[in-house]
Design brief:
The protein is mainly beta and 227 residues long. The protein has a single domain, classed as Cupredoxins -  blue copper proteins (Immunoglobulin-like). The chain is 6% helix and 34% strand. The chain is built from 3 helices and 14 strands. The strands form 3 sheets. The protein has a 6-stranded mixed beta sheet, with no helix packed on it. Strand 9 and strand 10 form a beta hairpin. The N terminus is likely disordered. Bound molecules: copper (II) ion. Copper (II) ion binds next to strand 13.
Length: 227
């Protein structure tokens, strides 16, 4: 991060076509604003302007650890804020970089649209069924890398399953060797994983949560593998 290589991903990018990883440098000099308190006399009162600055502090100024990280609102009522989109992810590449790949970001999220503390919508990148209607196009044989983070509120666990293929899983993206070779991962809230796979056949391959309720409410998509 100190060299400005990092990416910020906002969950409010439902148009993120194909789930492609956005890239952008973070400020290398932290702004002077302190992290905002969420309670007590120094917390912003209702109606007060809130300074919109972040202080990026990974290992207090170093670029460690590389990996896939989350940021989110910490004001109360926290669960309502998380259930309505106040979070994002950022990627810290290792100094030696990662192998060239077709990179995708999947923020696995959910939305409580009627404030009953249950989710009416589940998705990868906010829009229900988006990648079923617009499958993510990848090339046969190319390395595909998925940065997946789970921020679903009100449910203990989420998962990501890919049809017709297995993948290497790098938990949190922090280590150079994979932790597993599988076709499904499970993620608690706030957990992240980097997945690498290649499709050896052309065609359409679904991916979805293996919590069937989540799938039926929008967390399902497809890859379109082309020559
Ligand atoms: Cu399936």
């Amino acid at each position: 991060m100190a060299d400005g290589y990092g990416s910020v991903v906002s969950p409010s990018q439902p148009q993120n076509p194909g789930g492609h990883r956005p890239r952008g440098a973070l400020p290398t000099t932290p702004p002077p604003d302190a992290v905002l308190p969420t309670r007590g006399p120094d917390a912003p009162a209702p109606g007060q302007p809130i300074p919109l600055h972040y202080r990026w502090c990974l290992g207090c100024g170093s670029d460690e650890p590389a990996g896939l990280h989350l940021y989110h609102c910490h004001s109360t009522p926290l669960k309502d804020h998380i259930a309505h989109g106040l979070y994002g992810m950022y990627i810290v590449d290792p100094k030696e970089g990662r192998a060239p790949a077709h990179e995708l970001v999947m923020m696995l999220n959910s939305f409580d649209t009627n404030f009953d503390e249950e989710n009416e919508v589940y998705a990868a990148n906010t829009k229900a069924f988006y990648y079923m209607e617009r499958p993510i196009k990848v090339k046969k044989g190319e390395l595909v890398r998925i940065y997946a983070a789970n921020i679903v509120e009100f449910d203990q666990i989420n998962s990501l399953h890919v049809h017709g293929n297995f993948f290497d899983e790098y938990r949190t993206g922090t280590m150079p060797a994979p932790n597993a070779y599988t076709d499904i991962i499970e993620l608690g809230q706030g957990e992240r994983s980097v997945l690498e796979l290649r499709f050896n056949d052309t065609g359409r391959f679904m991916f979805h949560a293996h919590q069937t309720e989540f799938t039926e409410k929008g967390w399902v998509g497809a890859f379109e593998v082309e020559e």
